[in-house]
Design goal:
Structural class: mainly alpha
Distance between the termini: 18 Å
Largest sheet: none
Number of strands: 0
Strand content: under 5%
Number of helices: 5
Amino acid sequence: MAHAVATGLVALALAHAAPSKPDIVFIVADDLGFNEVGYRNSSRGLMTPFLDDLAFSGVVLENYYVQPICSPTRSALMTGRYPVHLGTQANVIYWDTPWGIDLKEKFIPQIAKE
């Protein structure tokens, strides 16, 4: 099902795009709180004008969930699958880690090409 969600997101982006290839930008920030960007809470004095412009001119995801560490979050985002199905649910994948996501998995760029 998660793969279908990722495929659906890509299909939605392609359907609303001009005939040329769409520009898709994902911003993933580790340890960023809900009210730690200007467009969410300007009363805190946090000034994030570029993020605010992107939010007001693009799509803001309101209901989403992340994992407590970066590798599970990123692997889920890039594949559309739950980290437990990828083996990334408990560890960070460092540059020298001798394992990673199975090479048979499809990532968003591969799905978008289809």
